Structures are given as structure tokens and as C-alpha cells.
Amino acid sequence: MNTSDFFSEAVIEKIRNLIHETGGNEVGIIVRNNDNESETLVKLLSRGNRWSTPALIESCLRGDIFIHNHPSGILEPSDADVEISSVLASRGVASGILDNEAIRVYFLVEPGAFPEDVPVPMEEVINFFARDGKLAGIFQDYEDRPSQTHMAVDIAESLSNGGTMMIEAGTGTGKSLAYLVPSLLWARANSSRVIVSTATLNLQDQLLRKDIPILEAALGTPVKASVLKGRSNFLCLRKLQTLQREPELFTETEERDSLASITMWAHSTATGCRDELPTQPPPELWEKICSESDFCPGLRCPHNSSCWVTRSRLTAAASEIVFVNHHLLCADLSLRKATGTNRSMILPTYERLIIDEAHNLESTAAEHFGKSASHRGMVKQLGRVMNRRGNKGALPYLVKIISAACTGKGSVAKTAPANEIRSFMNRAVEIRNNLLESMDKLFTDLENFTGVGTASPEIADNGKFRLTLEVVKSPKWISGVAPAIDNFNRMSRNLRILKEDMTSWFRESSLQKNPNEKNRENSEIEDAFRMVNLYMRRFLDASEVLATMLTTGEGQEGSDVVWMEKQTAGKGRTGRIKVISCPIRVDAALRETLFSVIRTIVLTSATLTIRGSFEYMINCLGARIDGREVKISVHDSPFDYASQALILIPHDFPDPDSPDFLKRACIHGAELVTITEGRTLFLFTSYAMLKSARDMLTSELNRITSQMKDSSYEILWQGQDLRHRLIHRFKTSEKAILLGTDSFWEGVDIAGEALSMVIIMKLPFKSPGDPLIAARIDAVEKIGGKGFRDVLLPDGIIRFKQGFGRLIRNTRDKGTVAIFDVRITKKNYGRLFLESIPECLMSKASSDRNIDRTVSFFHD
Which domain of life is it from (predicted)? Predict the structure, then answer.
């Protein structure tokens, strides 16, 4: 058959060029036909040799055509070809073989041999959740939840028909199974996969370890489900081998014990994933041995067959349900944007996506579509090239093995230019010293100018300083900081020139004369040079990002916000500043890379609406494409909040900005705690407030217990220990209270009496002085909006709903939510908060009256 019978001339030319670019060796190619032929994707999928192709089938979608060439011109399929085509056919993918000139083609499975997408069998979805259905068959006291069934039907329709849908599902709806059941049925009907993205590891763990086993038990068949993690979570055997050969060149003394235990673990681990380690290694050590795309030679790696990253991705490719987190999803999207492509860059190719905990997507996307550079990070990258003493790092290692090759008997021995690499080393020492000096000066000047890390009144809220265009054009900046930026740029250019010189030298030297010769000596030298090149490039990339941010600030377009902030305290004064740039809004980027590309997207959470409206979230995420409406659905919680929850609002409290507020709140909070005997979660809007309240609560509770001759309370607070340990201690303690901010407003799932009260100290408005929030307010007000109404208020309501949702976790729970911020009743906007949560019992009264109501509520 002629290729022209199946492909246009333009597509044939692309195929031919891909084959010729690889020297006529065997390659695997995907052809993806779109409705518009000019958009037909022709993608190089894999490179092989003249005899075989490692066909990476995880990138193929239903309806794709996978072709590979036989350089011999003989188009007879091998046994491997037949096996691959069979696997591809089960996924709805055609496959064929062609010659190197792309004139003739032999199809093992012809294009068009597959039907259109099969819709989700709706009856199966409904029957699964019915009173006498499959789910009822594995639970003795099963009670069907109409809201769960309705949600599952909504999702089934979206998976079948395409489009974007937002679903708010109240706590207790059972949303996990509501999306897993139709997702699995769609994946099986279409021999494909569904990606499920979550914000937290807790939910991911619940889905895989709790919900998938329930599905398997109910259906009576195994479910192919997997968790796909980022590359840096996996050990790289190649990098580990390098460190084992020369540990003194790469690791500090205190890291070597960890390296020894990791080496032993590497022989027994099934996944190579860091989470499996009994104790977590120092971050600096893990960074030296984890997998990195820039350092990965792919199929040419001698460890390719045992690579844990490859295994993980192949497992995901064969899965019906693939769980990822928002960070990996957004990393994939940011790579799409950077490369200008619509295809998956990290995740296996997919057409159906479920986004749980979708209220967190905006913040995660902003992080991944942004950029950052820090003194600490750049010093670390430079130290990987060569440390301050010049005796450790990738470059000293390269010098050592090339010098050894020159005096040895290997194939490189007679030709390796040891003197030249030592000359490069000498240049590198001088450049490194100059760079370190220029960086120290630059970051010191930045600290002095902004006050970040000091008590200067010039800094913005939370130790952040916004770097506007006006700032970088100011005389003070031009005279006080710009000279240090210019000097740093000059020093960075010297490193760039060194890198280019070394690359040219290495390419032309005798070290590369026989690139196909596979001996250990050549491999070690190539790996070492790759490391030097990688770490230099990473430093230079960071230096370029830093220089751009410091030179242009937020620029004139106004699409990004730039600020400086203090990093976690480290040694010394410098190294504590981080410069960050991120888009003010992520709607355009998400619209371009996600909502206009993926056929079906379902976003769900318990907190997507404000007074029943999805508009705020739709606009934030850019979910509406070309005026098409986003399908929406609200499924209320099955819990009886009117009898299970009491809201306390003391009307005799001072305003939250009053100097008396915190003391009054802690006195009343301690009184409430004695009623519930601990079991209380305090939620704060700042860590400074939390620390002050901790001391006041400790004093007040000690006073009360001494008067009552009662046992003392255990006070736990964020920062005292790891988050999951604090929550576990709180659950298992007799009389404990837990103080948290930020992340504790969500993801804390404590059912039963262990959590009987949630105290919200202040309404969770973000600080208008935060650079990102300030930039969003500026952008809204430029187009006639109101910063408080359009930015601070809706975000605060979403966070408030999350905090409220910590209390009632099942039908037997009973508890109170105390709101100490009187603005919720005294300000007009306060009703918007109360109208966005379920109807509960309410006590708007004096503090004393609320105490009485609380006692009555728990004793009824």
C-alpha cells in the first residue's frame, strides 16, 4: 500500500524528515489526525537501531496511528511488531510499518478500524450505588446516598459527552466513589485511562488504599490503578553509582551513613521511591542521587531496564485510573506552555481528567507558571560544579577521571587532554570565586534596600517586598542596587563563556572520537561532563531569571508580579532572600494549556461556590472557553447540620483589630475548651497571632485547671512538629487543643468526639499587603472593579468554608463552631459567609450566654 492512500503529502514529508534526522535508523512515530488537517500531529515517539524500536506505547491515544520504519525496506512484521500491534489495538491505536522514504506502508491494524468513544453505561453507574446494587453487596448496613448517585451520573455524562464541569459536593457526599466509578467504566469501555488529580497526599493515599479496594470488592475484578509521582521522587541508579565510586568528591561526612543505607535499600526496593525509605535522607544528599530529566540519557542508560522512573511511567500507561497531585499536573501544563505544545510532557497522554480539591488549583498553577531564584539555591548549584575549596563537585571529578585516563591503559589513555581540562579547572576556580563575591554583594545590597530579613519599615507584610517597575526605575535602586546587578551579570557571562568553551572542546576532543564505543572509561567521562554541563546550565538559567526580574521588575505589561521574601533562616545573613515572579492571574495559562486541550475536565471540591454561584472559581481558573458554558452541579451534604452543629458568635467582642481582642478571645476560648474537655481546633490567620495566643491560652488554661483542681490540657501548635504527627497526637490525646494556620484550615479530617469544637479567631482574609494579592487588587481596580469585593472577599469565603468543614465529618458527629470575629454580624458582607455554609443552629449572643448554649447543646 502507498502511504499517500492514508496520509497527506505534508504529513508524509514530516515522517520522512524524522526518519532522515535519525540517520535512517529505526524510529517510532505517532500520527494523530485532528479535524483540521493542518493541525495533524506527527511526533517522534522513540529512537531505536536498525533492528528494533522500543515502542513507548504510553503516549498513544485512542484513534492514533503508530508507525515505525524498517530500514531494510522489507515490511514484513516481526514477532515483536505483531505483539506491539496487538497491545496497541487493545487501546484503539492503529499500527503499521513503512520504508525509510515513507513511500510504502504495511498496516498490521488499519486506521479507522475502531469505533467512536463508547459512552459510560449509565445503568451500571446507577445500579452500582442502588440499595440492592454492587456497593450494597459488600456493606452490611449500606445506605444509599442520592447525592452520591446524582453526582456519579453527572460525571458519567461529562465523560461521555465532553466539556468542562464543576461540581460542589458537600462533606459526606462520597465524591471519591462518585467519580471513580464512572471513570473506571469509561476507561474500560474505551481501553483508555482517566487521570485523577488531588491537592493532598492524604486524599491520594485514601483513594488508592481505601476506595480502589472497595471498587475491586464491589466489582469482583482487579482495578488497574496507580500513583504517578514526579521524577525527583525516584532514586537514579546511574547517579548513585557515581557517588559510590567517589563519595568523597560529592558528599559531606555526615551524608555518607545515609548513602550507605540507601545503597542497601536500593537492592531491595520495589519502587525506588523516596517515600519507601525508613528514614528520610538529608535533602542535599537526595538531590545528588534522585532522577533528573536533564541528567537522564534515556534509552542509552545502562540501567534503563531497571529504571524506576520508566517502570512507574509504564505502570501508569497501563492503568485505567492514574492518580497524580496538582503539582505534577501543573508541572506538565507549564512545560506545555514553555514548549508551545498541546501534548503531555510528563503525564501519560489523556483525554479525561478529574480534579479533586479543585479550589487549590489556582495557587498551585501560579507557583508552576512562575519563576524564582535565591542566593541559597544558586550557591548550591555552583557548589555542585565545584565547592569553595575546589576539592569536591562535578568538575574536580571530571578532572580526576580524565587525568586517570591519561595515565592508564584504556582507550582514552593516549589521547586524553589532561592539561586542557586542568586549564579549564583553573579558569573555573577564578570565575567561581568572582561569582560568589558578586552574589554576596548583590544580595547584601538587596537586603539593605528592601529591609527583607531586617526590621526595616520599608518591607511589605510578612517580610515581602514588591518589586514594581517604579522601584527598579527609582534613583535609589539605580544607585544602590543596579551596579551590583551589572557586576553579577558580567561574572555570569564569564561562566557562560567557560561552559561554551568546554562544550566545544569536549565535542572536538579525542574523548568524543569514538562516541559509539561502549566502555566504562568513556561512559564515566561522558557522565561526569554531563554533570558539569548540567549544573553550570542550571546556575546560568537561575542567574538569567534573577537578572531579568531585578532589571525589569514587573515590567510594563502588568501580567506578572515580582517580589522578594525572606527564606527559612539559614547560616549567616545572606542567602535568606528569594526573588519570585508569578502571573497575577492564571486563567489565561490554564485556558490555553488545559481547558482548551483536554476533552473532558471535571472539577470538584466541597468549596467551589459563593452563595451557590460558581462564577468566582470559573473566572479564576479560566474554565470558560469561547463563551461556552461550564456545566455546574451542587450536591448538598447528607449531614443534618441543623441538629449536629451549633455556631457561636459572641456579639460583645471587640473588633479583631482592637488591642484587647486577642486577650478576650483567649479567655473566652479557654472557657469553651473546658466544656469540650479539649478536643478543639483553633484556626488563625497569621503565625504571629498563633504564637501570641498559644502563650495566653496556656496561662489561662493553667489558671482554670488549678482552680478546678483538674488535669492540665495538652496544647499543640503548628511548627511544634510535623503536621501529620500533630494531628495524630491531637486525635489520640485525652485533653488536647490544636492551634493551626494556613494548611490547617483544610485537610484535617478528624471524625467523632476527638474534634468537638472549631474556633475561628478571625475571618480568613488574605493580607492586602501581600505582593500577589496587592497585584490582583491593582489589576481588578484598573478595570473598574473593587479590590475587597472582587479579590479579598470571595477568597476569604472559600477559606472560611474550608475551616467550617473541619467539624462535621460523619452523621454521628456533633460539635460547635465559634466565630470570634464580630464583623460576621456587624458588616454587610458578613452574611455572605453565613449564607455560603449549611444552615445550622445559631447563637448570636453574649459570651456568657454562648457558654450556657454550648453546655446545653452537648448535654441534650
Answer: Bacteria
Tell me how far CA of residue 97 lies from CA of 7, 9, 65, in angstroms: 14, 18, 11
Query: Using one digit for the tens of pLDDT, what is the confidence trace for 552-604?
Result: 888 767 789 999 998 765 444 444 789 999 999 999 999 999 998 898 999 99
Distance separating the N- and C-terminal Cα atoms of the chain? 82
3-state SS assignment for residue 523: helix
pLDDT confidence of residue 34:
56
Enter the DSSP assignment of 118. P
Question: What span, in angstroms and rounded, lies between the C-alpha atoms of 287 and 264?
Answer: 18
Residue that has been written with the C-alpha cell 485512542 in this structure? 62
The answer to whether 312 and 228 have CB atoms below 8 angstroms apart is: yes
Query: Would you say 459 and 450 are in contact if contact means Cβ atoms under 8 Å apart?
Result: yes
Lowest mean pLDDT among 90-99, 120-129, 668-677: 90-99
In the prediction, which pLDDT does 92 show?
74
Report the amino acid identity of residue 699.
S
* Look-up of cell digits 451549633: 646
C-alpha cell at 263: 545503597
Q: Which DSSP category does 790 fall into?
A: I
pTM of the entire structure?
Answer: 0.85
If you count DSSP H runs as helices and E runs as strands, how many of each does the chain have, helices first? 33, 23
- Provide φ and ψ at 165, rounded to 5°: -135, 140
Q: Give the pLDDT mean for 49-75.
A: 68
**Residue 241 Cα to chain centre, angstroms:** 29
Q: How far apart are CA 257 and CA 67, in angstroms?
A: 49
Neighbours of 780 (CB within 10 A): 18
Contacts of 508 by beta carbon, 8 Å cutoff, 6+ apart: none
Q: Kindly list the distances between the CA atom of residue 151 and the CA atoms of 128, 553, 627, 634, 747, in Å, as whole numbers in the listed order.
A: 13, 46, 25, 8, 22
CA distance 54 to 42: 18
> Rounded CA gap, 374 and 359, in Å?
29
Q: pLDDT tens, 505-551?
A: 888 876 655 544 455 556 788 888 888 998 999 999 999 999 999 99
Contact 453, 443 (CB under 8 A): no
SS3 580: strand
Helices 212-219/175-189 angle, 10° precision: 60
String of DSSP letters for 584-613: S--HHHHIIIIITT-SEEEEEES---BTTB
Scanning 709-786, the segments in alpha helix (DSSP H) are 723-732, 771-782
Per residue, what are the HEC states of 686-730? CHHHHHHHHHHHHHHHHHHHHHHCCCCCEEEECCCCCHHHHHHHH
495-504 exposure pattern, b = at least 16 Cβ within 10 A, e = fewer = bbebbeebee
Q: What is the pLDDT of residues 14-39, one digit of tens each?
A: 999 988 888 888 888 888 765 444 56
Of the candidates 768, 378, 382, 374, the residue with the CA atom closest to the CA atom of residue 550: 374
CA dist list (Å): 432 to 543, 787, 795: 13, 46, 46
Q: In whole angstroms, how far apart are CA 554 and each of 478, 545, 558, 560, 658?
A: 16, 13, 6, 6, 35
